[in-house]
Amino acid sequence: MTASQPATRTLVLGIDTGGTYTDGVLLDYHTREVIASCKSLTTRHDYAEGIGRVIEGIQIDNPAEVKMVSISTTLATNAIAEGKGARVALILIGYDKELAEAFQLHQRFGTTQYAFFAGGHTLFGEEKEPLDLQGILDYVHRVKDSVDALAVSAYFSPMNPEHELRAFEAISRICDLPIVLGHQLSTKLGSVERATTAALNASLLGMLRDFVIAVRRAMEARHIHAPLMVVRGDGTLMSEEFAARTPVETIHSGPAASAMGGRFLSRVDTALVVDVGGTTTDIALIEDGRVRVSEEGATVGNYKTCVQAANILSIALGGDSHIHIGRDQKWTIGPARVVPLAYLAHQHPAVKRRIAPLLQKGWGQIDLDQLEFWFLQREPPPGMLEKGSREAEVVALLREGPMCVTDIVRRLKLLHAGQIGAAELWRQEIIGRAGLTPTDFMHLDGIYRAWDAEMSEIAAALFCRNLGLDVKTFRDLLWQRVDEIITEVILSFLTGKKLAAPDPLHDVDMGRWFFHNSLQAAHPHLETTIRLKVPIIGIGAPAKIFLERVADIFHTELILPPYYWVANAVGAVAGSVMVSEEALVYARLSEDQSEVVGYYVQTSEGRTYYESLEEALGYARQRVRTLAWEGAVRAGAHSPQVTLEEVEDGLDTYRIRARAMGTPRLA
Question: How far, in Å, CA of 336 to CA of 333, rounded?
Answer without folding.
Answer: 8
